[in-house]
Amino acid sequence: MKSKDDRLLEIKNILENSTVPVSGTELAKTFQVSRQVIVQDIGLLRAQNIDILSTQRGYCMNHSNRYKRIFKVYHHDDEIVEEMNSIVDLGAKIDDVFIEHRIYGKIICEMNIKSRKDVEKFMENIYNSVSTPLKNITNNYHFHTISAEDEETLDQVETMLEEKNLLVKE
């Protein structure tokens, strides 16, 4: 059995060389460990600033040289679709959503939403579950990490959020 360090290095190499996402189950079989061990390994790699994306089809490296910006926003549930569609319509991607909880600290969830189809699927999952959006824990205040191919697109996202009164200025 390989050491944890060897396994981490090999997982990194597999993801760097793969042209398609690699499932956690596939990695678990490759290394003869549980899927939970793979989830922990991915977390350790991310802690080393290795940019790994989680998709519905598995893990992949973020090979793009995208620009990122964090926006603090506030809105109600009935404005989620408008917010997300407006962001992706500008050509940006919603990488994650996170909140700053006074007791638990930062709680972050990856989203990887880059199209209206992704928005629709996300909302379908919200409507078909007993869970509610993360923002509801902090009275509708939350943050998004948004990425784009250029700073101009991020500027457009900021302007749009401001115009729709969704952006929270500190």
How is this fold's topology laid out?
Blueprint: H1 4-17, H2 24-31, H3 35-47, E1 52-55, E2 58-61, E3 67-74, H4 80-89, E4 93-101, E5 105-113, H5 116-127, E6 141-148, H6 151-163
Antiparallel strand pairs: 1-2, 3-6, 4-5, 4-6
Describe the structure.
The structure is a single chain. This protein has 170 residues and is α+β, with helices and mostly antiparallel strands. The chain is built from six helices and six strands. Helix 1 crosses helix 3 and helix 4 packs antiparallel against helix 5. The radius of gyration is 17 Å and the shape is globular. The N and C termini lie far apart (51 Å).
Overall SS class: alpha+beta
Report the biggest beta sheet as strand number plus sense, adding barrel if it closes. 4 strands, antiparallel
Query: Helicity level, as a percent range?
Result: 40-55%
Quaternary assembly: single chain
Strand content: 15-25%
Give the low-pLDDT segments. none
Q: How far is the N terminus from the C terminus?
A: 51 Å
- Radius of gyration, CA atoms, in whole angstroms: 17 Å
Total strand segments: 6
Q: List the strand order in the largest sheet.
A: 3-6-4-5
Give me the strand/helix succession. HHHEEEHEEHEH
Number of discrete helical segments: 6
How would you sum up the global shape?
globular
The average pLDDT is 92
